[in-house]
Design goal:
Elements lengths: L72 E5 L9 H4 L8 H8 L5 E5 L15 H5 L11 H11 L1 H7 L2 E5 L6 E2 L2 E2 L1 H10 L11 E4 L7 H12 L8 E2 L14 E5 L5 H9 L3 E3 L1 H7 L11 H6 L12 E4 L6 H13 L19 E3 L5 E2 L7 E2 L1 H16 L6 E2 L5 H19 L7 E6 L2 H11 L2 E5 L18 E3 L2 H13 L9 H4 L15
Parallel strand pairs: 3-6, 3-15, 6-7, 8-9, 8-10, 10-11, 11-14, 15-16, 16-17
Antiparallel strand pairs: 1-2, 4-5, 12-13
The structure holds SN-glycerol-3-phosphate (G3P) and magnesium ion (MG).
Length: about 525
């Protein structure tokens, strides 16, 4: 799928851009400050620390607005149709005469997707990176022998140009199919992280973050698990999973239905994001088992459920955080809520549009590679099923919002995380000029990276099994056998062909006196 132009969706050109959504189909009665309400954009206004960079096919985007009253969020206009990734699958569900019309009637243009203003987006970081200052300033300790940190800083003084280039590049890693397969390590993944974390000629940490459509666990739990698998520290401060940007929605909705994931893990995720009143489908089934007639409800599930009288509660929004473990129950409850009067179970709205509560999905992947030989259905497939059911039952299209790759909001959020991580690593809060996305899925990692103006590298260790390059969404920097090949090619381009992908203690430590190179370095 190539990049979309806004005019394809009935959007005005940048010069014509107005501050209201183009014939927005959304006439719902949401809370006044709902994130789906269009905010006036502020072309040319100060946008804080967010860097303005070239943006592939999203290049004409409306700038981010940071209003004084917006607390910890920034508004990101959803310029790209959330339908785009599923359009090939959706045509037979559309009653509209043309794709263009269908998209205009179904997309969320003009809606503002909130994302957290992410500087120090989480205080749950599991990993600290002691800097050289910490090493030097330990009171009462004997004089320190030259450590790698000290030697590295001296080497870096000598190779100032390479250091500058190393701080002007960053990697964004997809996880599944690039660094790991589920819980299984891809060996080149560990090798790459070793190198980027300092096992290189300069002993320098080359900035990198992780951007996955994975979901279903709190960030800390997942980064701890990944740190073990990859045998490298991964901080929550450099980690984005599909629902991470959705923490911003906690400011807008009080009572939410959270769907998907194992057991009650997504309730835990929502709690950590600050959602106040969280309901999961099992709470509803425990209150009224007849709502899901085919459900076999175990004692364990009943014990973990928090039933109450849901006929007296309005649910403000639906958040699909992760893959449904029980399509029949989850779809039934979601459709019940979407058809209800303002989220009150047991009611059916007279007008299915104006009284409908909003629904959000954390990502739109149709398929996900697993141990099974044929990829399994993921959230995108679940969503398409829901859309079809909703349309069949109400006669109207379901408007919805999708986060995750390749949606714009997620890439804007990634920019924030890169800048913040640069600050932690190198004391410079900015996005490097040369960002490389390494991914295995052309329809997610590569299209998103291309549209955002990043360099993109496609690896052959995951979803992509094709020829020279993906014909629909070709990787701009190339196709590589694995993540090591991709990262080293990018480093050679930015740091020179002579860049060495190994730290050599002996080569730089004058105490060991066995290298001519050491003479260039004063201790
Ligand atoms: O599609 C779900 C998830 O497994 C994809 O993960 O890391 O490849 O974005 P990732
Ligand atoms: Mg992947």
């Amino acid at each position: 799928m190539s990049g979309f132009k806004e005019v394809d969706f009935g959007m005005p050109s940048p010069k014509q851009r107005v501050h209201t959504p183009p014939d927005s189909p959304d006439k719902t009665t949401r809370p006044k400050d709902s994130p789906l309400d269009t905010k006036k954009d502020s072309l040319g206004e100060n946008r804080g620390s967010i860097r303005h960079r070239r943006l592939g096919s999203w290049g004409n985007m409306v700038p981010i607005e940071t209003s004084p009253g917006s607390h910890n969020t920034i508004e990101v206009p959803a310029l790209r149709s959330p339908d785009a990734d599923t359009s090939p699958y959706m045509h037979n569900l559309s009653l509209s005469p043309s794709m263009r019309e269908r998209r205009v009637s179904r997309n969320s243009f003009g809606a503002a997707l909130p994302i957290p203003k992410s500087k120090r987006q989480s205080r749950l970081s599991s990993v600290t990176f002691p800097g050289i200052q910490d090493v030097l300033k330990r009171p009462g300790m004997p004089p320190i022998q030259p450590t790698r940190e000290i030697l590295a800083s001296q080497v870096q003084d000598v190779y100032a140009e390479k250091v500058k280039a190393a701080k002007n590049m960053a990697f964004v890693f997809d996880i599944d199919g690039v660094l790991v397969h589920g819980d299984r390590l891809i060996p080149e993944g560990k090798r790459v992280l070793d190198m980027l974390n300092g096992d290189n000629q300069l002993g320098i940490r080359i900035p990198h973050i992780f951007l996955t459509n994975g979901s279903g666990k709190p960030e800390l739990a997942r980064t701890e698990q990944l740190s073990k698998i990859l045998q490298n520290p991964i901080s929550t401060e450099q980690f984005i999973q599909s629902h991470t940007p959705m923490r911003a929605l906690a400011e807008y909705y009080n009572t939410v239905l959270v769907v998907g994931g194992e057991g009650t893990r997504c309730r835990e995720v929502a709690e950590q994001y600050g959602f106040k009143d969280i309901i999961v489908p099992n709470d509803i089934v425990a209150w009224d088992p007849s709502i899901a007639p085919y459900r076999v409800f175990t004692e364990e599930e009943r014990a973990a459920a928090r039933p109450r009288d849901f006929s007296k509660i309005n649910i403000d929004a639906i958040m699909v955080f992760s893959d449904s473990r029980d399509y029949a129950t989850d779809m039934q409850i979601i459709v019940d809520l979407l058809r209800s009067e303002n989220g009150r179970l047991g009611t059916i709205a007279k007008d299915p549009v104006s009284q409908r509560i909003p629904i959000y999905f954390s990502q739109g992947d149709m398929l996900c590679p697993t141990e099974h030989p044929i990829p399994r259905m993921s959230q995108g497939a679940f969503r398409i099923g829901l859309e079809a059911m909703y349309k069949a039952l109400t006669g109207v299209e379901l408007e919805r919002v999708v986060y995750g790759k390749p949606e714009l909001a997620t890439y804007k959020y990634a920019d924030e995380v890169i800048a913040s991580w640069m600050d932690i690593l190198h004391g410079e809060e900015r996005v490097p000029e040369n960002v490389y996305m390494i991914g295995d899925n052309p329809a997610s990692d590569i299209i998103g990276g291309n549209m955002y103006g990043w360099n993109t590298c496609l690896v052959r260790t995951g979803v992509f099994q094709g020829g020279e390059n993906d014909p629909e969404n070709p990787a701009s920097f190339g196709v590589f056998a694995n993540v090591w090949e991709a990262v080293t090619a990018a480093c050679r381009k930015e740091l020179g062909d002579d860049f060495v992908f190994k730290w050599d203690d002996k080569g730089v430590n004058p105490v060991l006196h066995d290298s001519a190179a050491a003479s260039a370095i004063e201790v």
